[in-house]
Design goal:
The complex is a heterodimer. Chain A is of the alpha/beta class. Chain A has 6 helices and 13 strands. Chain A is 27% helix and 29% strand. Chain B has 10 helices and 12 strands. An 8-stranded parallel beta barrel of chain B has the order 1-4-5-6-7-10-11-12, surrounded by 7 helices. In chain B, strands 2-3 form a two-stranded antiparallel sheet. Classes of the chains: A alpha/beta, B alpha/beta.
Amino acid sequence: MKVTLIDYGAGNVPSVERALRRLGAQVETTNGAEQIAAARCLVLPGVGHCAALICALDAHALRQPIREAIRRGTPFLGICLGLQALYESSEEAPDLSGLSILPGRVTRLPQNVKLPHMGWNTLTTTRPSRLLASIPADSYFYFAHSFAAPATGQQRAATCSHGREFIAVLEEENLCAVQFHPEKSGSAGVQVLQNFMRAAA
Amino acid sequence: MSLAHRIIPCLDTDGSRVVKGVHFEGLRDAGDPVELAARYNAEGADELVVLDIAAARDNRPTFLETIRRTAEQLAIPLTAGGGIRSLEQARAVVRAGADKITINTAAVQRPELLSELSAEFGAQAVVLAIDAKRDVNHWQVRIRGGREATPLDAAAWARRGVEMGAGEILLTSVDRDGTQSGFDIDLTAAISRAVSVPVIASGGAQVPAHFQEVFTRGCADAALAASIFHDQIQSIRALKEFLRNAGVEVRIPC
């Protein structure tokens, strides 16, 4: 199947691309609005500072095509910053607005724990999840972030906790996103990507 | 459940081959980095570090190719470094497939490099490597592979490095490195208390009890070792099972 990977220059684009190809996907990497509008299936990776992502989306005029693709029902997977960008705003870049597909604000994790939240952590599943199908409940996933979305919202499928609870997996119809890095999370991460591709097919 | 303690094998390379030696000297061949990376990925390593420790840095393209081929084997994070002195060199390493960049001597000489890397890649991708040696009542920072002393105090330098943009500290005890006599627990605990970011302990690991000690008394978030894994003295899975039985949270993949 063909997957369109939104390449705004994020560091993890090559590893996401490699992971999708290993699963047999035909991967198109692009920052072109037309390619995104025409995509069968979209993946927005991201790592680093959220201002870099938002500014790159604006520089390439990708806000509208991404929002419209999600509204039309195009299967979408956001990874790490690609999850955080779905919200209205982020404390990391208070002057910029996010894609505003979901209500709420991304905030910094509490200072009473080591930040970045870096390494392998487990999830608390809050409802049945397509992305987490056939993955053992005690599996670990790789996280690398200091900011996170609220743990609330009807899209919530699983949470994680580091200083506070936050959204780790969100799913609502065609819209999916994960705070961890499935491309770096061993076999459990590979299964998440495979589950996404199966649901999108 | 909470964040697992990470076990990180380290591949010291001369650019293309894994090498090893005591106190950075007397190097000998210890295998192919790509083969070792595949083995550690399968055995349940939580992350991999690949360093270019060659004295002559004229083989940069070779090292980038090593990073590329190593990254191909991995479904876990990859940290790369050794001789990175500029943003441009760091970009090449990231483009080759590294998730994080580690810098050491260059950061001591020009701390602003930490800020430049952090602005470009995010703090989570910037690992400040500190080689520390005990000096009466504190630990002194050493550079150039541990050979050259600096006036810096390791704890103060770690704090400064985090302020400048480092998202993680890779802390090597020069006294313990290569000795297999255990991690420097006091050093690790002191640095871990000094900073708000994760600390990777390195230098001196041999038996599973050394890891248990550095995770509990040493307050380390991760522990790094090389030869005990390369020589198959210690399997990663058996190490993690020991730690889990000792009450230390670790990830044991199925």
